[in-house]
Design a protein that fits this description.
There is one protein chain. The protein is an alpha/beta fold and 218 residues long. The protein has a single domain, classed as 3-Layer(aba) Sandwich (Rossmann fold). It is 30% helix and 17% strand.
């Protein structure tokens, strides 16, 4: 997987979301973080989908303690950063225990300070977030990250749901960096034509071929 941020060195904290479950956002988050690490960038992937965490499954690492435990003050952040097991410059903070109030935790000053402090230590921070149709978490985080990427899955994503996700992010004044078109069939020109419709928003097109066995939860 390759991705370009058009030379913008200020775009360093990036949220990954989708309009619906099952579009491959967590797999995209892992692939993007690993790609950045392979270019020599120290990269941290944070699983902020605390209700239905998936990053630990994809990387076969321990779920907890993690982000939620830091945000409730039970753990310090340094001790909960793990190696991804894929690349030495690719580190991970898993979601941790399922909290009763994920949205409140993500909107807290503690979360904002955590991201700010970690961004001083890493070249890039990738934050895996819940889909926009499910809860407000991605919209909350979009207000304090440098940019958002929306994952779209071929022959799966509903156009109305995607339009709604874009409108909500725009309402929250999010910086939408672009899309990742996931699970693409190389010969499917029809879907690519439909997808190009979103050029009207001025976002970057991106296609991929990754499949995700955990798509039902992703």
């Amino acid at each position: 997987m390759t991705f370009s941020f058009a030379g913008d060195e200020q775009t360093r904290v990036i949220g990954i979301t989708s309009s619906l479950r099952g579009e491959g956002k967590s797999t995209t988050s892992v692939n993007l973080a690993n790609s950045l690490a392979e270019t020599g960038k120290f990269t941290l992937l944070i699983d902020a989908d605390m209700r239905l965490a998936n990053i630990h499954k994809l990387l076969n690492i321990q779920l907890k303690p993690g982000l939620s435990n830091i945000l409730v003050g039970a753990k310090d952040n340094e001790s909960l950063i793990r190696q991804s097991g894929i690349h030495p410059k690719f580190h991970v903070m898993t979601a941790g225990d399922i909290p009763p109030n994920p949205s409140e935790l993500l909107s807290s000053d503690r979360m904002k300070h955590l991201v700010k402090n970690l961004s001083a230590k890493y070249d890039y921070i990738i934050i895996d977030l819940p889909p926009i149709d499910a809860v407000a978490d991605a919209l909350i985080v979009s207000e304090y990250v440098d940019g958002m990427i929306i994952v779209v899955r071929e022959n799966y994503t509903d156009k109305r749901a995607l339009d709604n996700a874009i409108r909500q992010l725009q309402f929250h004044k999010a910086n939408i960096l672009g899309f990742v078109l996931n699970c693409v069939e190389a010969q499917n020109k029809y879907y690519r034509k439909k997808y190009s419709y979103y050029n009207k928003y001025g976002y970057t097109k991106r296609s991929g071929t990754e499949s995700d066995e955990a798509d039902a939860q992703d």
